[in-house]
Amino acid sequence: MAIQVPTELLDGCVLGLLTTKDYYGYTLTQEVQRLIPISESTLYPVLRRLKKNGWLETYDEPFQGRNRRYYKLTTTGRGRLGEIQTEWQGFSTAITTLLGGKINE
């Protein structure tokens, strides 16, 4: 897929995944990459920004002698996800209409 994912949508994808369970960075990246071609170097700055905005929290868990940093959705993160989902509905409809060559007159 050659289409670049806008930052706002990438934020929504990450926040959406975290509604079901907490993920550590690598598995979160793998889940996003299953559907959207992004690199790890793309996702980690997104995670830092989402945390800085208060939409994510982190905690560490030991695993085989190392710590894994887990990301957890906050209440304000759920609110932000709702805003992105609402914005996406209108945007998606508009793009689908335009790509189909249909303009309401």
UniProtKB/TrEMBL annotation:
Pfam family, one: PadR
Domain Transcription regulator PadR N-terminal, first and last residues per copy: 14-82
InterPro entries: Metal_resp_DNA-bind_regulator, Tscrpt_reg_PadR_N, WH-like_DNA-bd_sf, WH_DNA-bd_sf
SUPFAM superfamilies hit by this protein: Winged helix' DNA-binding domain
Protein name per its UniProtKB record: PadR family transcriptional regulator
